Amino acid sequence: MSANLSVQNIVATASLGKPVQLTRLARVQSNTEYNPEQFPGLVLRIKKPKSAVLVFSSGNLVCTGTKSIAQVREVINQVIKQLRKINVKVTDKPKITVQNIVASGSIDLKLNLNFLALALENTEYEPEQFPGLVYKLIEPNATFLLFSNGKLVCTGTKNKAQLDESMVILNKNIKAATEGKK
Known about the structure:
By secondary structure, this protein is of the alpha+beta class. The protein folds into two domains: 90 residues, TATA-Binding Protein (2-Layer Sandwich), CATH 3.30.310.10; 73 residues, TATA-Binding Protein. It contains four helices and ten strands. Strand 8 and strand 9 form a beta hairpin.
């Protein structure tokens, strides 16, 4: 039983260490959305790689939509370039922290979700409400959505090693559960 996963989204945070005048940024940059009455952050859309960055007046950033750490860096550098236009000069290289990786893939196996819901711990399965089984791992912290056709989504890991380790544990636990059934 093997799995092929591809990263769909990385959520990462960074701090510029400088305050940002969001109203000014919104006026200068056309690729922004800013409604301070509804949300304190400004949304900055980046075309390539396609992503969105929440910019807060504190200089904190939340980057979403990228598929690799290299892309996160590229996006943050683009944000820094755009901030130069409003005289925010970022001198320190921002430390990037990955908060969450979302990956999707499949295991070459049809899954009996009713059986797995009973055989595995930390599961939620209500097929009337949602066709997937939610399976939570504690260590590493990962949450899987498993579907009967073997497709899956994994969220909650913070790096490739955790993602790989959680897949190994998932495979091992499904194998143990299904072999125990025979």
